[in-house]
Amino acid sequence: MLRIVKRRARLGHDRRGSLRSSQQPNGAFSWQDFNPDGSLAALYNRHGTLSGSETSVPADASPLADFAYSSNLDGQKTQEIRSGGGLTTETSSYGYDNLGRLNQVMLPDGTNRSHSYDLDSNRSQVVENAATVAATRMTLQRPAASTS
Predict the structure, then answer these.
(1) Coarse DSSP helix, strand, coil percentages of the chain, rounded to the nearest 5 percent
(2) Residue range 48-58: mean pLDDT, rounded
(3) CA 132/CA 12 separation, integer angstroms
């Protein structure tokens, strides 16, 4: 017989009203730190139970996974560092063109992705390690002439 037990996550918020923490029924929690501009600085996924009075992320000798983020002055993510849980620390980097569009991604395995855009800022091509992996071609069609 399957017994369904309703369990809910407990949510904690900071003074700005941003979600700070999420306590899961299984004894794990997520904690978010924010930059002064409100952008996400770090996300921690860890074991343990939050009391609700924490002012910083509680330590965990074996975190599930932690993420740290860096942003440019426009608030765009430029770097993501993943660590914890016995994982090798991995870094992804992101670059943007003069119009603020994502144009470079460097993945932890060394994969380098370049994004190209058409004149309307639609992504038109993705090149991965010098090989095109995705391309989009837009064809404009004229409306059919009315016969009435």
Answers:
(1) 0, 50, 50
(2) 87
(3) 44
